[in-house]
Design brief:
alpha/beta, TIM Barrel, Oligo-1,6-glucosidase, domain 2, 4 domains, XnlR_reg_dom, alpha-amylase activity, zinc ion binding
């Protein structure tokens, strides 16, 4: 693609910005609860201060207000609650005094049924005004003989477009409500009357018109039936009433009058494609200056009706913007830029995020996206305040719009027993209903009326309820906040005026048209740059519609704008001189390090590392995400970068050693981890599922780097956020989201079990008996991320299908960690007699063995099962299940290893049996991990394996040192060799393994020393387990006060590593025993 430059003459109205006012909701000056003209006049200085050039008022003419003034009963008078003609004249003068132009809303496709023309027309078939409207006799249903409308046209308000008139016994046409009969423009008298109205207002000082649904004024002759596109009699008639055969003839007649007065015009043209709109707005057509299209509005509307379900996609918006920008520029047309008005809901809620942390950011992003396109800019009242849609808790009694209320009546009729359907439509009203844009303007924080009307006014309340967020989101607060969306709009409009050669008349080029993503980026180019070579010539606008930080690959055409390619650093850095920081949602940075840190790796590298993360790490250390939906989001640039960076930091160790051969990745992992931490620290929403997931990722990163204190801190954050979010009792109703929440909760719970055992602290999370187990893994992966399926959690769902899951099976034996830890603590403190000790051991042993006996045959470790699970990507998870079982079992019996060697009477048969079981589970663990590492798809390379291997190796070492059975010694030597080889392999990826190896050396030396001392080895071994997760340098002095001579050996293995942790152990003395 290349830049397309507008082929148009320059004109002030092309460079203008227009502020739309909805009179009834702007400001009430007399206390009757309805906004009025005097209220508007009182705030003209505010409007001027925004930097706009024109003001457009939605209809203020006389009307019964069936459709909020779009049903006019007198074209030459003002709706009394709004004021008088004198008030209106004063408004025009006040606008002109401030250099602002005035745009009147002209509604001439239809009138009110209370207009004198229509009253006369329906009085008699022989009335002079009869042919000013469309009248037709009834048809008869061939089957029933009942009266039916003249054709099958459906109105835009969900009823028939025809209403029966009892007086004259004919139907009249109304494309909107029955109170809005359509004018018949085929009648020259109608055309002449409209021309007279236009001249009347232009003579009175109006500067131009916004023309309501102007492309509907010409219909297909004969008014034939509409094509059948949906079930039922009524069908949308757009092919017969939008852009009819005489439309441009009628528009040229209007245009000729506008040219006489040098007046402005913008037409509303729904259901019109670019080619048809161009016929109306082409520079030499002599019709309209520009027109509103509704392709953007339609992006999240249903096919058959606006309230039917649909989902907004940023890529679709990118395509619409590109089509209209390039088509109009190439063909001497002009765009009317808008995304929000009185007929469309609030864009912050609709296209971005209206959550409190993201609301201002969203408003600023949308302002930048819209305002820097080519065209005349339209801003709707409250848009500058980041006003949002109606509260979800509002009932239907709060809604006022006839379109919405008519539809709700039909919903109650058609779906009276379908609560789910009713709930869906209620939500759609809140998403796209017109009422969302009509709540009163929020001027200040004064309760209860937000400055819209004075406290103590004669009417009890405004005509429509004030949005309850007015105390924070109001004009007064935002004027005082330099970083508010209001002040951002001021900067945007000022910047637009400063750079009209680029932003108004410059070329337009959309980037990444072939990529589906949440980023919309375009370049504007000055076509007159040769005249002033030293001024800016290009503007790059980058807007993200994602609710989280994402990875965006800089397109080649944007690199020379965004990056300083001349830097001496060897790496491209952000071009800080080119950034317009006042208009961005980012902080100004200046150092090279920060500038480089803001650049992200290529999409290809991100893809590769995220794949490695899910292949080798996810579901082994934790199961935090739904792999298919996360990868799809990441590929489209929609995944949260707080997660992507952390995944890359974890996966880089494998890429640099296995996949890419790129040693730089090993070092980059720290940078990516730092970026993720920064995003976590700077997050806008303090407590969220995303933040919990990020904390658990950083638990893994910290453990991997040997930073055990940081691991504890991140885990503690995750636990606290789960408690604050009440995750166990407030699961989502969406099936996929709920399952992710369930798995996240269990993940944090498992970490809590391990951490409380390792740190000798109380476990923080407790299991609610009704909380569901994680879903079976394959069923979880197959959940459709695009489905809005929601259902209740049934007992059958929680138990029958979930019991088969690998993660669900891990939970029962994870629960024994705390009891095992308690036993060890009591033993170390000499607080438990043998009888009680053996009883507790047997209870835990029974739980573990019962679990093993009840395990389905498909979950046992067999070559067939390993191959089967490996083929589905779950081989490593099956291995993790069984290594957990053997590890907890070896922990349970660990204290009896040395005690079984005693020659005293304390060495009972049960002690000998427990020691045998300990050695047996340690052997099973070593053999299982060795088998897994030789089975493709089952390789166990996650960090925790190092911990498990260290414990099992300590058991093997004990056998090696204290057993006199040659067969046992030969066996453990082989297992120690395998364990050591596996730990050395893990050490390539996880620096934290060095800590495990170092502690194992401590264990070995202590065992050697104890062979010649009276040291109580049993208690020391329990201390070794109890304090295993803590840094040696901080803890061992207090663990071993009774053997100071052993502590002397610690200095040999506690050198200062590059990360402030224990240095890597070499192939130390204990290996010589192998």
């Amino acid at each position: 693609m290349h830049s397309v430059f507008p082929k148009v003459d320059r004109a002030p109205w092309r460079e203008a910005s227009v502020y739309q006012i909805y009179p009834s909701s702007f400001k009430d000056s007399n206390g009757d609860g309805i906004g009025d003209i005097q209220g508007i006049i009182s705030e003209l200085d505010y409007i001027k201060s925004l930097g706009v050039d024109m003001v457009w008022l939605s209809p203020v003419l006389a009307s019964p207000q069936i459709d909020m003034g779009y049903d006019i009963s007198d074209y030459k008078d003002i709706y009394p609650p709004y004021g008088t003609m004198a008030d209106h004249d004063s408004l025009i003068q006040s606008l002109h005094d401030r250099g602002l132009k005035y745009i009147l809303d002209l509604v001439v496709n239809h009138t009110s049924d209370q207009h004198p023309w229509f009253k006369e027309a329906r009085s008699s078939k022989n009335s002079r005004y009869r042919n000013w409207y469309f009248w037709r006799p009834a048809r008869r249903d061939p089957k029933t003989g009942k009266r039916i409308p003249p054709n099958n046209w459906e109105s835009f308000f969900s009823t028939s477009a025809w209403t029966w008139d009892d007086t004259t016994q004919e139907y009249y046409l109304h494309l909107w409500s029955s109170g809005q009969p359509d004018l018949n423009w085929e009648n020259p008298e109608v055309v002449a009357a409209v021309h007279d109205i236009i001249r009347f207002w232009l003579d009175r000082g109006v500067d131009g018109f916004r023309m309501d649904v102007i492309n509907y004024i010409s219909k297909t002759p004969g008014l034939p039936d509409a094509r059948i596109k949906k079930p039922g009699f009524l069908q949308k008639p757009t092919e017969h009433c939008a852009c009819g055969p005489r439309l441009h003839e009628y528009l040229r007649g209007i245009g000729s009058i506008l040219r006489e007065y040098n007046a402005f015009s913008v037409g509303e043209m729904p259901d019109a494609d670019p080619e048809e709109v161009l016929k109306a707005v082409g520079q030499n057509r002599g019709e309209l200056a520009m027109a509103f299209h509704f392709d953007i509005d339609g992006l999240d509307l249903g096919t058959d009706h606006r309230f039917d379900p649909a989902v907004f996609q940023p890529t679709a918006l990118k395509n619409v913007v590109n089509r209209w920008q390039t088509f109009m520029a190439s063909n001497s047309g002009w765009n009317a830029l808008h995304m929000e008005n009185h007929d469309e809901s609030r864009i912050v809620s609709r296209y971005a995020s209206d959550s409190p942390p993201m609301r201002t950011i969203s408003a600023k992003m949308l302002a930048n996206h819209l305002a820097f396109q080519s065209g005349t800019l339209f801003i709707y009242q409250g848009q500058e305040l980041a006003m949002v849609n109606l509260p979800r808790e509002w009932g239907m009694d709060k809604y006022k719009d006839i379109e919405c209320l008519n539809h709700w009546t039909l919903v109650q009729s058609y779906y009276q027993d379908d609560v789910k359907k009713q709930k869906m439509y209620r939500e759609r009203y809140r998403q796209v209903g017109r009422d969302n844009a009509r709540t009163p303007m929020q001027w200040n924080s004064e309760s209860p009326y937000a400055g819209f009307m004075l406290n103590g006014s004669t009417r009890a309340e405004p005509w429509m309820s004030i949005h309850p967020d007015f105390a924070t989101w109001n004009v007064s607060n935002m004027l005082a906040d330099s970083q508010s969306s209001l002040n951002h709009w001021r900067r945007v409009l000022r910047f637009r005026k400063q750079h009209v050669d680029i932003l108004v008349y410059g070329g337009f080029e959309m980037l990444n048209m072939d990529i589906e993503e949440d980023v919309i980026a375009y370049i504007r180019t000055d076509g007159t740059a040769h005249e002033s070579p030293h001024r800016p010539t290009k503007v790059l606008v980058v807007t993200s519609f994602s609710g989280s930080d994402i990875c965006w690959t800089i397109p080649s055409k944007a690199r020379d704008i965004l990056l300083d390619m001349s830097a001496d650093s060897g790496k491209p850095i952000i071009n800080m001189k080119g950034l317009v920081t006042a208009l961005g949602n980012y902080e100004d940075t200046s150092t090279n390090d920060e500038r480089q840190a803001s650049l992200v790796p290529s999409q290809e590298l991100c893809n590769s590392l995220v794949d490695i993360y899910f292949d080798l790490i996810h579901d082994k250390d934790h199961t935090l995400f739904h792999r298919p939906s996360f990868i799809r989001a990441q590929r489209k640039g929609r995944a949260a970068m707080i997660h992507v960076y952390a995944m890359m930091a974890l996966a880089a160790r494998f890429a640099s050693n296995q996949r890419c051969g790129d040693s730089e990745l090993w070092e980059l992992r720290r940078d990516w981890a730092t970026r993720s931490k920064r995003l976590l620290d700077d997050r806008k929403e303090p407590v969220s599922l995303s933040a919990i997931q990020a904390c658990m990722l950083h638990c893994c990163i910290s453990a991997a780097e040997g930073e055990t204190e940081m691991e504890s801190l991140y885990g503690a954050q995750a636990i606290r956020m789960i408690q604050l979010r009440r995750l166990q009792t407030s699961l989502s109703t969406n099936r996929l989201q709920r399952e992710i929440e369930i798995r996240v909760w269990w993940n944090v719970w498992m970490w809590d079990c391990w951490e409380s055992a390792g740190s000798c602290i109380r476990q923080q999370l407790t299991i609610d008996p009704g909380f569901p187990l994680p879903m079976e893994e394959l069923a979880f992966e197959q959940l459709d991320p695009d489905s809005d399926e929601s259902d209740s959690i049934t007992q059958q769902d929680m138990n029958a299908s979930r019991q088969r899951g690998l993660w669900a099976q891990m939970i029962p034996f994870t629960e024994v960690v705390a009891p095992i830890n308690e036993i060890h603590e009591l033993t170390v403190q000499n607080c438990i007699p043998d009888a009680e000790l053996f009883d507790k051991i047997e209870r835990i042993a029974e739980k573990l063995e019962t679990w093993k006996l009840n395990l389905p045959s498909t979950l046992l470790v067999t070559p067939t099962n390993l191959a089967s699970y490996s083929s589905t990507g779950l081989g490593r998870t099956l291995v993790a299940l069984h290594t957990g079982y053997h590890h907890f079992s070896q922990l349970l019996y660990y204290q009896f290893l040395h005690r079984s060697l005693s020659t005293s009477a304390g060495c009972s048969p049960i002690v000998i049996e427990y020691a045998r079981r300990c050695r047996s589970h340690a052997a099973d663990l070593s053999n299982l991990l060795s088998l897994a590492n030789s089975t493709p798809g089952c390789e166990s390379r996650w960090l925790m394996v190092g911990h498990l291997l260290a414990i099992s190796s300590s058991i093997h070492l004990h056998t090696l040192l204290f057993d006199d059975d040659d067969d046992q010694i030969t066996g453990v030597k082989k297992m120690l060799k395998k364990n050591f080889e596996m730990m050395m392999e893990l050490r390539r990826y996880w620096p934290g393994i060095d800590l495990a190896i170092s502690r194992l050396r401590v264990f070995h030396r202590t065992c050697q020393q104890s062979m010649n001392t009276a040291f109580d080895m049993d208690h020391w071994m329990l201390h070794f387990l109890q304090r295993y997760a803590k840094p040696i340098s901080d803890k061992y002095a207090t663990i071993l006060p009774e053997i100071d001579h052993h502590a002397a050996h610690l200095s040999e293995i506690q050198g200062s590593g590059s990360d402030g942790q224990v240095q890597a152990a070499d192939d130390g003395p204990w290996v010589d025993w192998i």
